[in-house]
Write a structure and sequence with these properties.
alpha/beta
Length: about 350
Amino acid sequence: MLHPRKNGVDFYSNDYLGFARNNDFQSLLLEAVQENPDVLKGSTGSRLISGNTSLVTETEDFIAQEHQYESALLFPSGYNANLALFSALPNRHDTVIVDERIHRSVHDACKMSNARKIKFRHNDCVHLEDILKRQQGNVYIAVESLYSMDGDFSPLQEIADLAIKYNAGLIVDEAHAFGVFGYGIVHKLQLQDKVLATVVTYGKALGTHGAAVLTHNMIKSYLINFASPFIYTTAAHDFLWMSIGKGYHFLNNKKNSLIQLQENISIFRQSNMQSPSHENSPIQAIVIPDNHQLRMLAETLSDNGFLTYPIFSPTVKEGSERLRICLHSFNTEQEITTLTKIMKEFI
């Protein structure tokens, strides 16, 4: 059931750096619109017909250069980007090996591709290699750099090395890492030459919307001509592409937001609550293996003005129900300590 956005202290949104609510960023976008109001015009069609503009191609060139990839292809959402990528690249004769906790969009796309899909145990490189050894033909590996349910990182360096060893195409979803960790973990580790494609999204830390597939020129051209979610989608208006470009510049001028976010994560971690999440992750999962207890905690937090997101079974396995806490650069120390104090009464 859909509900309007509530008022309260935000510990549940993906606005990790606070850009979606940042007055300076909004003023920057408003000024850009006033200078060029044509960005508000509708696109009128798909990019293959009438919806392509010089602004979107210039933005893609800029993004590719920033991330040190040959090409970038923009999409209206991360789900749409994953759907295009995984439905078009693999075919029925190929194999896609996915981390068991990969995003739902990848699973949906694999159904469209008719490729064989095999799951490997979460972040288990030994299990992944055992599967790779037994494959023939074209193989793709799909992982996230930062997982949204557990708040833990993929061992990207090890997986990238396995991909090279077994001639598999590695695809990395950086939805929750981009912005929080600069341009993402692939960029941070300089793995571009080992990663076939990276997906970055802009509706989370960047505070706007849309996504980009970062890849090689040939794959970009292939997606443009064979990926149904790209071909048959009306293009977004230029305001979206403009906001993404401005968002990159804003991100590069707001390094203090990244520092403040890490400080807030440290404050939360100092509460010493048990969590499977990494100590540097903005996503902190607190496992409460009981739907009733979890619901009571979420309601108590809500009554005290704290907005959190409980995840019940069967959405997750029974016994792994959790409260998903999203930390932000704008959360105060008092808010974080009060939140953890209330949570400890239930744990």
